[in-house]
Design brief:
10 helices, alpha+beta, globular, 268 residues
Amino acid sequence: MPPAKKRARTYDPAKIRAAVLTQFGNVREAVSTLTPEQLALPTRLAGWTVRDLAAHVTMAVETVSRNLDRPEPPKAELALLDWPFATAVRAAGISDDTLDLAAAHPDRNALKALYARTEERLTEALAAAPGDRLLAARTGAITLADYLVTRTVELVVHTDDLNDAVPGLDIPYDKQALATCTRLLADALAAKAPGGSTEVRIPPYAVVQCVEGPRHTRGTPPNVVETDPLTWIRLATGRVQWADALDKAQVSASGERADLGGLLPLMA
């Protein structure tokens, strides 16, 4: 786990809570419309169907309520910028749990009930818990406020996975959730490759400096990478490869230190 080399930006707790609830609601509404044939479609996540992925979204959100039910750990163990690099070691266990949960909810009606229960528990939990409450998350003890920021990543990434898997689904993205996901992953890049020689632009949400080398001070930076939020999120999570994004003009890169291929993905 690479150490965070910069302090994480701050996020408005009320806006993050609203964003998590809104994006989960967006996914819940879409899942309630899926046919058996659509639920059986494959996704770009190896071995997972749409049904598996839909079940996983509830699991990613239910962790908030479940962790609030557990005793509070004595101290924080995980900084927000460490979280993207701490998830890979839990991937196998998460996949097994997801497949078990999906098997227990085999059709649309069962999934609708699962989403309703998850949303109810989350809403009740967030109404009472302060942001500085520590959670015993799988990746390490972390504050509720920071953990909710990580839930925007889970929700936005898997919304994109569902949209990719089901033609015409088009689940909307809450603006705050998309912005937060984009910013956290951009800051994680800057933590992984600290420096000031390369400017990464993801309008309209984020601009970060990264990569060792001569620091830019004024005028147009000599090394610039620019892309849109969803392409950036796909690059950071391995859904899209750097070379493919360049070939398809989904990302522009200029300068000798603008090749981010060796730094991506940030999350496995």
